[in-house]
Amino acid sequence: MKLTPDERKMLEGGYGAAKARALDYIIQFGEAFDAERLVDVIYVHYPAEMSIYKGLVEDLLEYAETGATVAVPTTTSTLACDLEQWDRLGCPAPVHDLQAKAVAAHRKMGMACTYTCTPQFLGYVPPKGSYIISVESSAIIYFNSVLGARTNRGGHLTRYSAITGKYPLIGYLLDENRRGTHLIRVKLAPEELRHDCDYSALGFAVGRIVGSQVPIFDFLGTPTQTSLLALGAALATSGSVALFHAPPHTAEAKTVDEAFQGAKPVEVHEITKSSIDAAFQAMTTIAPGDEIDFVTLGCPHYNLEQIRYVAEFFRSTGEKVNPGVRLWICTNRMTKQAAAWEGYTRIIEDAGGFVVCDTCPVESHMRISTCREHGLSVPQIRAMVTDSFKMARYVRDLIGCETAIRDRDSCLKAAISGRMS
């Protein structure tokens, strides 16, 4: 691999032992994939170590003592608990206490303690064409597709990219790997592609088809920021899609032909209402009228406007959450502070819901393995209603509950009635 003089200096210890070791890992990784050189990354979204996984926090604490500090702006992904109201949410003290130790270590290394899956909603908006490295599937696909920044699935290598500001020129950082592979003709009427959960269903249906390839959508109606987020999150859930094109709504191509970069589609698929209905049916195992005990919104994390909507729903209706139901609105702590300032948090909590930060159900103490370790009942949730295919897909396996997908208003109505509509 060709190294610049500055990179060679770093590798030889000119910027300290921690950076030298980190760069050595980066180089080894790049050479394994035949990278010709490294590139400078301008931003990293880092996989904050979660205390529900053995050894991760302990490894972080040890690594922070090496003196390693980040070289580029670095945000942190979700944790295993809400650090401020963990006890109200039923989190065991050992899970919280270990998790809390991570914060000081992240700060010592110079990271921003955002603890969110949507750092782009906090002002971390890398320019089109810039090299970044990110974890969190919904963030990766949003950065690549909607913003046109360039990232691979960072995994644990993000630590070393954050420390060095370097990454091998491979994968989705290369032009040729960003061309579309599958043409998706969306044959849906405007009313059939209206809610964020409709876009989530579309993503879930297409992800099953394309796997890890690059779909091109020839029609997406009039998507919003949050519907594109929902689409990408579901694409990365049923498949492992890290990049999609939807001209003219995404960053890199004005037309379908431009997105293919002169190549022909590997496959062409039509998505109709029956495709969407099948996706909803596949992830809905709760019958109408059945009792439910959990409703969650905010996968990926809700922004301020989405929280405002929920607060206005309860303010205008005067309704309360059913005593037998837990309602979680998941977000990051910065957005929760803004929601508190606006009065939204109090309205939701007065109605019986929780505005939860730092985490979400699937990343929490409610996982089957964590429940068994700490003597909690399994499953912690019996029947969950959500507007997110990503959430529904993962809680089935990790929490062991039944699921239903509904639009946001229907989710809130289910929280009030305690029954599936």
Q: Would you list the SSEs in sequence order as H and E?
A: HHEEHEHEHHEEHEHHEHEHEHHEHEHEH
Structural class call reads alpha/beta
Compute the gyration radius: what is it?
A: 22 Å
- Biggest sheet, in brief? 5 strands, parallel
* CATH homology superfamily name of the largest domain: Aconitase, domain 3
CATH architectural grouping of the largest domain: 2-Layer Sandwich
Number of strands: 13
> What's the CATH class of the largest domain, please?
Alpha Beta
Instruction: Report how far the terminal alpha carbons are from each other.
Output: 59 Å
Count of helix runs? 16
Q: What sort of overall outline do the alpha carbons produce when their principal axes are compared?
A: globular
Helix content estimate: 25-40%
Low-confidence stretches: none
Number of domains: 3
Strands in their spatial order, largest beta sheet: 11-10-9-12-13
Fold-level CATH name of the largest domain: Aconitase, domain 3
Strand content: 5-15%
Mean pLDDT: 97
Question: Your description of this structure?
Answer:
By secondary structure, the protein is α/β, with parallel strands linked by helices. It has 3 domains: 5-175, Aconitase, domain 3 (2-Layer Sandwich); 179-282, no CATH class; 294-417, Aconitase, domain 3 (2-Layer Sandwich), CATH 3.30.499.10. It has helices at 5-11, 17-32, 56-64, 93-108, 137-147, 158-164, 196-210, 225-238, 256-260, 273-282, 304-317, 333-342, 344-350, 368-373, 389-398, 408-417, and strands spanning 38-40, 44-46, 74-76, 133-134, 166-168, 182-186, 215-217, 267-271, 294-297, 326-331, 354-357, 383-386, 402-405. Helix 5 crosses helix 8, helix 7 runs parallel beside helix 8 and helix 7 (196-210) packs across helix 10. The radius of gyration is 22 Å and the shape is globular.
